[in-house]
Amino acid sequence: MINIVITGCSSGIGFETAKYLKEQGIKVYPTVRTTDQLKTLKTYGFENAMKLDVRNPDEIAAVIEHVMNEDGKIDVWFNNAGFGQAGALEDISVDVLREQFETNVFGLHEATRQVIPIMRQQGYGKIIQHSSVLGLVSLFGRGSYNASKYAIEGLTDTLRLELVGTNIYPVLLNTGPITSDFRKNAMQKLQENVEIEKSIFKKQYHENLAKKKSEVPFNEEAISVAKVVEKIILASKPKPRYYITKATYLLGYLKKILSTSFLDKLLLKIA
Question: What is the pTM of this model?
Answer without folding.
Answer: 0.95
